[in-house]
Amino acid sequence: MRWITREHIRVDRVACPWLIKRFVDPEAEFLFVPEHELLAAARRESAIPFDATRLAEVKLNHRGDRCSFESSAPPTSSGRSMSPLKGSA
């Protein structure tokens, strides 16, 4: 499966591919494109977009004060829900 996000990678966009590759899709391929091309590139490449805060269509994204990595991680022992990846990939 292909996954796509914004270019100019930062910590959050490194952590998300690690999480995806480790727990969701061991064969994942990652693409990095300019943000204004993200949705068109995702359609063209049949890729799942993630971590694009300005694009409401992107489901794997920041949620409130949690970055994409935090909002996609498994729930903690305190019960804090942090997993839009589960069941949506």
- Placed side by side, the strands forming the largest sheet appear as 2-1-3
The value of Rg in angstroms is 12 Å
Please summarize the sheet with the most strands. Answer: 3 strands, parallel
Task: Name the average pLDDT.
Answer: 75
Number of domains: 1
Order of helices and strands: EHEHEH
- Which segments are poorly predicted (pLDDT under 50) over 5 or more consecutive residues? 80-89
Helix content: 25-40%
Structural class: alpha/beta
Amino- and carboxy-terminal Cα gap? 9 Å
What do these coordinates show?
It is a single chain. The protein is α/β, with parallel strands linked by helices. The chain has one domain (2-72). The chain is 30% helix and 15% strand. The protein contains 3 helices and 3 strands; from the N terminus they run βαβαβα. It has helices spanning 11-24, 38-45, 68-72; strands spanning 2-6, 29-33, 47-49. A 3-stranded parallel β-sheet has the order 2-1-3, with helices on one face. β1 (2-6), α1 (11-24) and β2 (29-33) form a beta-alpha-beta unit. It is globular, with a radius of gyration of 12 Å.
Write the layout of secondary structure elements.
Elements: E1 2-6, H1 11-24, E2 29-33, H2 38-45, E3 47-49, H3 68-72
Parallel strand pairs: 1-2, 1-3
Summary tags:
89 residues; 3 helices; disordered C terminus
Question: Can I get a quick summary?
Answer:
This protein is α/β, with parallel strands linked by helices. Helices cover 30% and strands 15% of the residues. Strands 2-1-3 form a 3-stranded parallel sheet, covered by helices on one side.
